[in-house]
């Protein structure tokens, strides 16, 4: 079973979203995704003040296995980037829901959160793919 966190929402592209204060959210990749990727060696994040659009490309993660594109699950403006990943991308493998977060976004359309999966729905989605 894959580790998930009840307070998070998930996309079908395996990103997670944590609601913060106001219309701000933190985004990362799920435990399932980091396990599938293997050892992560490089992260390309958007920059502060970049506009992101739900379900569109926002960066990439490079592992020893492959390069995978990152899709933002929500629309808004990037307000914070986890710069620690530049020197320690492996943090995503070690703590995908804590120190391994990617960016924080000020939402332009908070209703988009309603289209994301809760923990139970995400776990079911993963299990479907493994059958």
3D structure, described in words:
It contains 4 helices and 9 strands; from the N terminus they run βββαβββββααβα. The strands form 2 sheets. Strands 1-2-3-9-8-5 form a 6-stranded antiparallel sheet. The radius of gyration is 14 Å and the shape is globular. The mean pLDDT is 94. Strand 1 and strand 2 form a beta hairpin. It has 131 residues and is an alpha+beta fold. It starts with 8 loop residues before the first strand and ends with a helix.
Distance between the termini: 13 Å
The number of distinct β-strands equals 9
Helix-strand category: alpha+beta
Q: Total number of helical segments?
A: 4
Query: Helix content range of the residues, please?
Result: 10-25%
Average pLDDT, all residues: 94
Q: What would you call the shape?
A: globular
| Largest β sheet strand count, sense and barrel closure | 6 strands, antiparallel
Main features:
alpha+beta, 131 residues, 3-stranded antiparallel β-sheet, 21% helix
């Amino acid at each position: 079973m894959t580790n998930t966190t009840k307070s998070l929402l998930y996309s079908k592209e395996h990103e997670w979203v944590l609601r913060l204060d106001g219309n701000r959210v933190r985004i990362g990749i799920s435990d399932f995704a980091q396990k599938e990727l293997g050892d992560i060696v490089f992260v390309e994040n958007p920059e502060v003040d970049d506009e992101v659009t739900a379900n569109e490309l926002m960066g990439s993660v490079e592992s020893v296995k492959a390069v995978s594109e990152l899709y933002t699950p929500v629309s808004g403006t990037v307000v914070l980037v986890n710069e620690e990943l530049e020197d320690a991308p492996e943090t995503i493998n070690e703590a995908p829901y804590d120190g391994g977060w990617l960016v924080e976004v000020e939402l332009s359309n908070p209703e988009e959160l309603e289209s994301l999966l809760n923990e139970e729905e995400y776990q079911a989605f993963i299990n479907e793919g493994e059958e």
